[in-house]
Specification:
Strand content: 5-15%
Number of strands: 10
Radius of gyration: 33 Å
Largest sheet: 6 strands, mixed
Number of helices: 17
Number of domains: 2
Structural class: alpha/beta
CATH superfamily of the largest domain: P-loop containing nucleotide triphosphate hydrolases
Distance between the termini: 52 Å
Length: about 475
């Protein structure tokens, strides 16, 4: 499930909450074994044993065998008809609240700095409690309803055996003829009652887990692309000339407005430094996502050296790209593993790591630490400054030896001095690298060969830094 989830298009990930995925993978998928597969096996084995017992009882006394089974079965049938909707309701509630519990945990721990500063621990604990209590209540209801009939049926079974004993005793055969039948009935009931209860409890578990099962099956049904599992790209896409956005437009769904208006055209030559500016919501990040192959144009095409990019060759194009976002993702592992992100530890080229760090102007700082490149950065890089995290992101891009480096507001959260030093590191990179930068501050783009200003999903103007400033 996790593999299939990682291969889903970016548009799919953007449309759903990660807590639903984490809950489905970490919790619901495991519960399917105990709440669905195991109950099915129990039902099958119990039915086989019950048939064997009933055949033996039928051979001894058909009337008593049929009467006993139908009486006990009727009790369970009444219970099933009474609680099936309750089980379904609690199963849906449990499925929903599991997602809410994971969501509350993610949001609370993800915003721990703000929570500590604002003193809102009780608020977030209450959000968690509102999800956790209904979950526990639904879980306990299902457990109680699964076990409850056992006691009623056992009591009814004793009454039934007593009634059979009475009628056999007053029959012409008398008590002497009743003893063998009663002995067989008691022994059969001793084996039959637990199996009936197991069958019922398994049915209750299956009924309650239908919502969970539906979610897991939906995750399992996620399609895998053709390149999934390929260790090596069979046909890397050449990039020697230009990136062209050809009369494209984009919107997320049929019913939503255009994010990029129809007719957007742009050509980016290899080795150029291109900057994008524009107000929030003007479409800057969407253009980058299309260039990186994360989103596919609704209309028009992305063309690399005359080749249209689609789902069949997008991996060949993405192998040329490195992305440096505003919030660099750093795993809680060593500096070397973060720079060579996605490369198994035993396959990391440490000389290449040092070279990338030097080009990103972070090597001196790293080598001043006691553990140097083995230093663990903490969760999300909490032990590093903002400027250091951005330089690690640049080093990661350089380790990949990408031809295109995309910086999506990568310096917007930095102070002016730190931003200047990070941009200096970028400017010192090889001339044949294509660098695409999105920024809010125009001064960030002063060394770009061309600046594109977007407004309401359209290109408003294109020019040099001097031209844009003058206009």
């Amino acid at each position: 499930i996790y593999l299939r989830t990682l291969y889903q298009p970016y548009s799919v990930h953007a449309a759903r909450n990660s807590s639903e995925l984490i809950s489905g993978i970490a919790n619901k998928a495991n519960s399917i074994v105990y709440a669905t597969l195991l109950p099915i096996a129990i039902v099958v084995s119990s039915l086989m044993m019950m048939v064997s017992i009933l055949v033996i009882l039928f051979a001894i006394d058909p009337v008593i065998a049929i009467s006993t089974f139908m009486s006990l079965g009727f009790i369970y049938l009444v219970i099933i008809l009474s609680i099936r909707n309750i089980l379904m309701r609690d199963g849906k509630r449990m499925n929903y609240e599991q997602n809410q519990v994971f969501k509350a945990l993610q949001e609370g721990l993800g915003g721990i700095r703000d929570i500590l500063v604002d003193g809102t621990q009780k608020v977030h604990a209450q959000i968690f409690r509102k999800a956790d209590l209904p979950l526990r209540r639904a879980t306990s209801n299902i457990a109680i309803l699964s076990a409850l009939p056992r006691y009623a049926v056992e009591a009814s079974g004793m009454v039934l055996i007593g009634a059979v004993a009475y009628f056999l005793a007053i029959s012409p055969a008398g008590i002497e003829g009743a003893i063998p039948v009663l002995g067989a009935l008691a022994l059969g009931a001793q084996r039959l009652l637990p199996m009936l209860q197991q069958t019922y409890a398994s049915w209750a578990s299956l009924r309650a887990s239908r919502a969970n099962l539906a979610d897991v099956l939906m995750l399992l049904d996620q399609p895998l692309p053709a390149h999934a599992g390929d260790e090596i790209l069979s046909s890397p896409l050449p990039f020697n000339k230009s990136i062209t956005l050809n009369t494209l437009a984009f919107k997320y769904t049929r019913d939503t407005p255009w994010v990029l208006s129809p007719g957007l055209n742009l050509c980016i030559h290899k080795g150029s430094r291109i900057g994008f500016i524009g107000a929030t919501g003007s479409g800057k990040s969407t253009v980058l996502d299309i260039i990186m192959g994360l989103l596919h144009p609704t209309i028009g095409s992305l063309v690399i050296d005359g080749v249209n990019i689609d789902e069949h060759n997008q991996r060949g194009w993405q192998s040329h790209i490195a992305h440096v976002p505003q919030a660099i993702f750093l795993a809680d592992v060593s500096i070397a593993e973060n720079i060579a992100f996605g490369v198994p530890l035993e396959d990391i080229d440490h000389d290449r790591v040092r070279e990338a760090a030097q080009k990103a102007q972070i090597a001196q700082a790293i080598e001043s630490w006691s553990k140097q490149y083995s230093t663990v950065v903490g969760e999300r890089g909490v032990r590093m400054s903002g400027g250091q995290r951005q330089r690690i992101g640049i080093a990661r891009a350089l380790y990949k030896k990408a031809d295109v480096i995309v910086l999506d507001e990568a310096t917007s959260a930095l102070d002016n001095d730190t931003e200047s030093s990070v941009m200096a590191a970028i400017e010192s990179l090889e001339d044949d690298l294509t660098v695409i930068i999105v920024a809010h501050r125009l001064s960030t783009l002063k060394n770009c060969s061309q600046i594109v200003e977007l407004c309401d999903g359209q290109i408003k103007r294109i020019g040099s830094y001097v031209d844009i400033v003058e206009q």
